[in-house]
Structures are given as structure tokens and as C-alpha cells.
Amino acid sequence: MSSRPLLPHCLVGANPIIWSNDDFNELAGDVPLDTILSEMRAAGYAGSELGHAYPRTPAALAEPLARHHLRLVSGWHSTYLAARDLAAEEASFRSHLSLLKTLGARVAIVAECTRCLHGTREAALGFGAAPAPQLDNGEWTRLVAGMKRLAAIAADEETKIVYHHHMGTVIQGEADLERLLAAVPEISLLLDPGHLAFAGIDPVAVAQRHATRVGHVHLKSVRPAIAERVRREGWSFCRAVSEGVFTIPGDGCVDFPAIFRILSAADYRGWLVAEAEEDPVKVPALPKARAAREYVRREAGC
Q1: Is residue 30 classed exposed, middle or buried when 0-12, 13-18 and 19+ CB atoms within 10 A define those classes?
Q2: Domain 11-113+125-300 - what CATH class?
Q3: Whole-model pTM?
Q4: Ramachandran bin of 5, using left for φ above 0, alpha for ψ from -120 to 50, beta for the remaining angles
Q5: Which of 3, 126, 241, 297 allows an S-S link to 132, with CB 3.0 to 4.6 Å?
Q6: For residue 255, with 0-12 CB atoms within 10 Å meaning exposed, 13-18 middle and 19 or more buried, which class applies?
């Protein structure tokens, strides 16, 4: 660890996907909310993102969070701006934003899910000659216009949008990520080194290039030998997660100390959120969550 704390003003939260997978119910999808929150707090986290077990009305969610002394950090919102009516997308986003804002969260995570395949159990992830889902020019135009509109809505509510690059979506490759960030300067970047590394993108280079634009950080790493098998053998996202492609910071191939130094130099003061999804039956959640929390305390000083 550095001689001084790198990120002393950051708060450290967790995503409940460590305990119970949002996309695939067979990966401990039945873990009760109270178990998730009690273990999250026991592991030393200050806040939680949303998960499938969480109530989606403010009153119902506020009580268990308060009982476990946890703040609401943020939550994923799927957009379909390239394919659906913008008015319907606005209405859906406003409902999500209302929940976040009422409970004190000021970051809204969005990911474009038109033609996404990460939630399809048997769909092979695209790489190289078999690329990820793509948008045509007209769909890109709608995506950009829609993102600008949602960013304006969020700004009016004193909340910022952070875009989540994600495997199995239309923003998987580096060129598509850079195109979106250039076209919509109103959005911030959710820096997820795990998804970047899995896609074959250098997360340290992305952090350096967009350091002042990082609005939220997910902490997970990648086991490169498993990622290579995914590419070579055409695995689905479900199989990749089940077989352990993702792991906690301090394990795997991601250089988190370098990323923490970059964020420190940019005076990043947002949340750092552990989100290393694996099969919780194979890899118990609480020890993993504790190890990730201790790593962040040791290496980032928060």
C-alpha cells in the first residue's frame, strides 16, 4: 500500500450479485434479502447496489437497509433506446430514478440492452470474427439521442448517469465504447475493469484515458486462463460466470493498484463497489466479500 491513503474520501459498497445472481437463478438466486444485507454489513461495506431480491418501492426498501446500517449506492437500469419508443424509455427511467433519489442514491447505472445476449444461457459471447451484437447507423442515432435525453432528466434530478460497458451487449468492444463516450459527453463512465479485461480491453488504459470522466467504479478482476477458454470454445456468459471468469480485486489479472493511483490523481470521490460474481455455491459469498473489502482497505486506504 502507498505511504498515504490513495482514496480516503471514497466509500466502499457491494453488489448483491456476490451472494445471489441477477441473471441466472440457478446461481443461488433464492438467497433471502436479509442474509445478503446482514453478511454485506458484516463484511464491512457501507452501502449496497440493487439486486433482484430488493423491493422496488422506497418504503419497503428503506427499512431493511436502515436495519442493517447500509446506504443505497445505485442500481442497474436496462435501456432499449435503439429499439423502443423514447417516451416509454423515459417513463421507465424516471421510475427507476425516483427510487434511487428517494433513498439518497445519486448515481444511475445504465446499459443499452437492445439485442443483448448476456442473459441467454446458451448464447455464445462474441469475439473477433463472431462479434458481439451490433447496432446499425439508425440505431446508433436513436441510442445517442436517447442517452442525451436520459442524461438531461438525471441532471434535473441532481443525479448523474454512468454508462456500464458490459459483455454480451452492443457496447462490448473498445471501439463501440469510445464511440458512445465521444457522442454523449453528458454521461459519465462506470469503470468496470472486469468487463473491460474480459472483452480484451486494457482497463488501466481506459482508466487513464477517461480518468476525469469516471463517475462510478465496480471492483472485479478476471482469471485470464478462463477468459481465453471462453473465447476459444465459444462459451456463453452464464457458463463463463459459473466457471469463474470473474474474481475479486487482488486476484486475477487486473492491476488495481495502478487503477487506484489513476483515480487518486483525478481526485475521484465516488463509490467503489465490489461486484465479483461467481457461483456462490462453489465460492461462498461472505469470505470472498471480506477478502475484497480488506484488499480495498489495504490498497486504496478506504
Answers
A1: exposed
A2: alpha beta
A3: 0.97
A4: beta
A5: 126
A6: middle
